[in-house]
Design a protein that fits this description.
Distance between the termini: 17 Å
Strand order of the largest sheet: 11-12-14-15-16-17-18-19
Number of strands: 22
Mean pLDDT: 81
Low-confidence stretches: 1-9, 501-510
Strand content: 25-35%
Structural class: alpha+beta
Helix content: 25-40%
Number of helices: 16
Shape: rod-shaped
Radius of gyration: 46 Å
């Protein structure tokens, strides 16, 4: 049975709600940090581009002298034609005027917006040697006037409107920032754009320099809020989804088929996880020689949870010691002289040096001695190496007996027997089920039995369910058997009570109640 039903999607979301809320708050805090960084980055890119384009425009204006290599001595048809044609072919200049002592103030069209007064005023605003720049306001809007000295006494003057300069200099409409900006050349303003509402409560000012050029952009405080809102619109729904998906994914990653470690630890307190015991009998006499302790979980709504789920999860998180002590503190079977209690432990539990600190005290608390305990070593990992053998010998010296569990199905087969001799070998039930089939596993079972008999290592055959199987194994000289033929895993009723013991009103057999 898979434990997929234990946590429905709705309950999963509910359990992750606090984590999701925390992630959403972290997301809002991230937006609060991201918005200023975003504004700063975009503003820096904006100003750098504006400075590069402003330098390009000024260079084009200065290089006007390269497009006027000729010298003119009179305002004749040739000069007027050149003034008109070159203005028509320029993407920057609307009108040209040629000025010298010989030609006077020569302009090509009557609708030319440049006047002799503009010439005199522009001379008052030098930008660099031989180059002058100013602006004026007309009914058609703001015009920018520039004057270039071609050679001593000869000048060309041009004009361009504000929108043309903004289209060339600025990467986009600065109103998207709701900002005010200015371009300066040697601290002299040459172009301003945008405006900030007069009721703006606070401002953010950004200034970039590039040689003699500088650009300044002033943003209102609410622009940060607008940036946060735009990011929220773009990332809000994905982040809301991720706020629930990430905790659910992390919980699923730490779970096993929807089963969580916290679930198991809470079930200890509620008594939902409890031990059952299956008898192990002597093959010759049929007398019970011991009991194997197994774990069961009765979920209040989902029913019986398979041990391979929760035991595997506990092993993954190295919490099997807690399960073992929890089971030992429940009601135990009353062991008669010569009987033993068989516990399933993993290699990780055995090789640790702290088994005396957690297992031995619990056994003393329950009135058990190591000689009454058989430790079944599960075959999840290979048993090899000096450290492993040394740990097993140390446990044997303390009085524990050791058994290889599920022999023939995992790592710890004949190869390990050359390094360590166990007290018992438990043969997996797949070999018992092969009896009478004539198959390969039946042949292997005979070889395992012969090996155990010749090595004088007692064998326990698991999964004995029929009398024919029991007769066959008894005839072959098997020492002990375990299976449904001799008893189902059952809870203890009239046994040794523990601090965590609990009872249920179910059918009992002797000192056990059958599950």
């Amino acid at each position: 049975m898979r434990f997929l039903k234990v946590r429905s999607f709705g309950s999963e979301v509910l359990r992750c709600s606090w984590d999701a809320l925390l992630l959403m708050l972290l997301g809002l805090a991230g937006l609060a940090l991201l918005a200023p960084l975003d504004i700063n980055y975009r503003t820096s890119q904006y100003l750098d581009f504006a400075l590069d384009r402003a330098d390009y425009v000024l260079t084009r204006m200065v290089n006007t002298r390269d497009r006027w290599p000729e010298s003119f001595s009179s305002c004749d048809a040739e000069l007027l034609d050149k003034l008109l044609v070159r203005a028509q072919h320029s993407s920057l200049t609307n009108d040209y005027v040629y000025i010298s002592d010989e030609t006077g103030f020569c302009r090509a069209a009557t609708n030319n917006d440049i006047t002799s007064y503009d010439y005199q005023r522009t001379l008052e605003h030098p930008i660099r040697p031989g180059f002058y720049l100013t602006s004026k306001t007309t009914l058609a809007g703001e015009l920018f006037l520039y004057l270039v000295e071609l050679r001593p006494g000869h000048y060309v003057m041009g004009n361009t409107n504000r929108q043309t300069l903004m289209d060339i200099m600025l990467p986009s409409d600065p109103q998207r920032f709701a900002a005010h900006g200015e371009l300066h050349y040697q601290k002299q303003s040459i172009l301003s754009f945008g405006r900030i509402p007069s009721d703006a409560p606070m401002e953010y000012r950004y200034v970039h320099d590039k040689g003699p050029l500088s650009a300044e952009l002033v943003l209102p405080g609410k622009q940060i809020g607008k940036s946060m809102l735009s990011w929220l619109k773009m990332l809000g729904l994905p982040w809301l989804f991720m706020s629930f998906a990430l905790p659910m994914w992390w919980r699923r990653k730490r779970s096993l088929h929807g089963l969580y470690l916290n679930d198991i630890e809470l079930c200890y307190q509620r008594g939902e996880i409890y031990p059952v015991y299956q008898p192990i009998v002597d093959a010759a006499s049929g007398r019970v020689t011991g009991y194997e302790q197994l774990a069961r979980w009765d979920h209040p709504s989902e029913g019986s949870v398979p041990p391979n789920l929760f035991v595997t999860l506990l092993e993954r998180h190295q919490r099997l010691n807690g399960l073992t002590t929890h089971l030992l503190r429940q009601t135990l079977p009353a062991l008669e002289p010569g009987q033993y209690l068989s516990l399933n432990l993993t290699l990780d539990q055995l090789v640790q040096q702290d088994i005396e600190q957690w297992l031995v005290p619990v056994l003393k608390e329950r009135g058990l001695t190591p000689s009454q305990i058989v430790i079944e070593i599960t075959e999840r990992e290979p048993l090899a190496g000096e450290q492993t053998v040394s740990a097993l010998l140390r446990l044997r010296d303390q009085g524990f007996r050791l058994a290889l569990d599920d022999f023939g199905t995992g790592h710890n087969d004949l190869g390990f027997l050359g390094q360590f001799r166990p007290d018992l070998i438990k043969v997996d039930k797949i070999y018992t089920q092969s009896i009478g089939t004539g198959g390969l596993k039946a042949t292997m079972l005979e070889a395992i039995i012969q090996m155990g008999v010749e090595a004088r290592i007692p064998l326990v055959l698991e999964g004995v369910e029929t009398q024919a199987q029991a007769d066959y194994l008894r005839q072959k000289g098997v020492a002990m058997m375990q299976g449904y033929l001799f008893g189902y895993p059952s809870r203890v009723v009239n046994g040794v009570e523990g601090s965590g013991a609990s009872h249920r009103s179910q059918r009992t057999t002797g000192q056990f109640q059958q599950i």
